[in-house]
Design goal:
295 residues; alpha/beta; Rossmann fold; six-stranded mixed beta sheet; globular; cysteine synthase activity
Length: 295
């Protein structure tokens, strides 16, 4: 009997076709269900790759303490994967994160520090850096860590290419740390440079968990603008509406960043004559039940 651990089932997530949400009959929209990862989000891929590669290189050893700022999904992934790989995890997150996220990270055994909601994820990043310097913790720094995007270059990109038989014309992803879109773009463009890469970004004033329009000082160092062909701005109302439509019309229960991703995909679908679009469904909807997303 073949033995598997929970880490072995990260990746190879389902790709399903949306049948009801699109209006352009010459465009096929596929959804990559990253909520099917064991930690419930696309961030499982990067979390495992970042810790595992750091261990391989000898940058960290079992028993060491790591620190990372997170807005939610990365923290959950790091919390459960760190324990399995034998390292300790301190997570720093804005205090206005959903109760589900907070309890999940603590359930996995991570130490969680909540920072001021007014300072946002930028404040959490600053505080995590202070802990790194003060206590000597190791910081993975997902925002500048090449292992973040390489996780998607090695896994998510090839899966999408193979599952669409190389027929994909457009790839759409929410942009947070930008690891997903950077890795998938790099891989897909190597297969066919004509594939269009589309990033979903919040419109001015919109607050969409998991999607960011970063101030210049906090722009992820792994982000390369030349690898994104089109950026589509999404309002808060559009992201919420699309998340609810996904649940009601496609049976896909996902969070607000997924609503943003699919909203961008639908806008692209209305602009093109025909094509095959793949949009990332970042996580599962369960961790938003204490918010007003589905009210």
């Amino acid at each position: 009997m073949q033995s598997k651990t929970i880490i072995d089932i990260i990746g190879n997530t389902p790709l399903i076709e949306a049948k009801n949400i699109t209006s352009n009959k010459n465009v096929r929209l596929f959804l990559k269900l990253e909520g099917k990862n064991p930690g419930g989000s696309v961030k499982d891929r990067a979390a495992f790759h970042m810790i595992n590669e750091a261990l391989k290189r000898g940058e960290i050893s079992k028993g060491d303490t790591l620190v990372e700022a997170t807005s939610g999904n990365t923290g959950i992934a790091l919390a459960f994967i760190s324990k399995l790989l034998g390292v300790n995890m301190v997570l720093v997150m804005p205090e206005n994160s959903t109760e589900e996220r907070i309890k999940t990270m603590r359930a996995y055994g991570a130490e969680l520090i909540l920072t001021s909601a007014d300072l946002g994820i930028e404040g959490a990043r600053d505080y995590a850096m202070q802990l790194k310097d003060k206590k000597g913790y190791f910081m993975l720094n997902q925002f500048s860590n090449d292992d973040n995007w390489k996780a998607h270059y090695n896994t998510t990109g090839p899966e999408i290419w193979n599952d669409t038989n190389g027929e994909i014309t457009h790839f759409v992803s929410a942009m947070g740390t930008t690891g997903t879109i950077m890795g998938v773009s790099t891989y897909l463009k190597e297969q066919n440079e004509k594939i269009q890469i589309v990033g979903a970004q919040p419109a001015d004033g919109a607050k969409i968990p998991g999607i960011r329009k970063w101030p210049e000082a906090y722009l992820p160092k792994i982000f390369n603008r030349s690898k994104v062909d089109t950026i589509v701005e999404i309002s808060e109302a559009e992201a919420k509406k699309t998340s609810n439509r996904l649940a009601k019309e496609e049976g896909v229960f996902a969070g607000m960043s997924s609503g943003g991703s699919v909203c961008a995909a639908l806008k692209i679908a209305n602009r093109i004559e025909k094509g095959i679009i793949v949009a990332i469904i970042c996580d599962i909807g369960d961790r938003y039940l204490s918010s007003d997303l589905f009210e």
